[in-house]
Amino acid sequence: MSTHHHQLGWRHLEAEGFERVQVNFTPTLIDVAGRVIGHSQGEAFALDYALELDADWQLLRADLRLLDGHQLSLRRSDAGHWLNGYEVRVPALDGAVDIDIFATPFTNSLPINRKKLAEGEATTTDVIYIADLELNPIMAQQKYLRTGAKSYAYESVTTGYKTQFEVDAHGYVRTYPHLFERV
After folding, report:
1. Could you read off the pLDDT of 69-85 as tens digits, one per residue?
2. Which residues pair with 92 in a beta bridge?
3. Is the pLDDT at 1 greater than 90, yes or no?
4. Pfam families recorded for this chain (predicted)?
5. How far apart are CA 51 and CA 169, in angstroms?
6. Pairing of strands 180-182, 4-12
7. Are 139 and 95 in contact (CB under 8 A)?
8. Burial class (CB in 10 A: 0-12, 13-18, 19+), 160
9. How many other CB atoms sit within 10 Å of the CB of residue 129?
10. β-bridge mates for residue 144, sequence order
11. Three-point CA angle 74, 36, 86, nearest 5°
């Protein structure tokens, strides 16, 4: 069985902070473990997250835990529905393929690596969006346009937020203006 891993780190620019992520690959799964220490809305926080993806970068499970005790667990059922940590279906998230966690640029890697867009191609994806420290999941729609060999234009169709960012050869964010920078 062939396995390998990537270790990543980001410095948070707008709100001081740091993130460390390890991505472990097996032939059938990608396991992601990340820790973010930073500030949000004037409050210091520590967030641990674990994502389980299939080999095609599709989200199967997400577990988020804040040092203060807030936590969120979601998993995709065999029928394709999202279930919370109590195994209760969350219909508002039906159709979501990806997750976007406010505190990390890593989650941009999911649609980038799953879609493998050519330059000039775009995709729109439904995501589970975690917008703040309350860890309340909402459905959102996001658009990615590959503008260059290592650059993307991003738009939250839901909020109207737009930006551009650069990725490395593995589809991980290198620079995300005003928010994140790889170290």
Report:
1. 999 999 999 999 999 99
2. none
3. no
4. Glycolipid_bind
5. 21
6. antiparallel
7. yes
8. exposed
9. 23
10. 123, 154
11. 20
**Alpha carbons 12 and 155: distance in angstroms, whole number:** 20
Beta strands 98-101 and 122-130, pairing class? parallel
Site of tokens 């990806």: 98
175: β partners? 166, 181
The amino acid present at 158, given as its one-letter code, is: T
- For the chain, give the number of residues: 183
Could you read off the pLDDT of 46-68 as tens digits, one per residue?
999 999 999 999 999 999 999 99
The residue written with tokens 């994806």 in the block is 125
The count of other CB atoms within 10 Å of the CB of residue 1 is 5
CA of 65: how far to CAs of 17, 131, 159, in Å?
17, 14, 25
Q: Which two tokens stand for residue 124?
A: 């729109």
Contact criterion met (CB below 8 Å) for 136 and 163: no
Tokens of 50: 């674990």
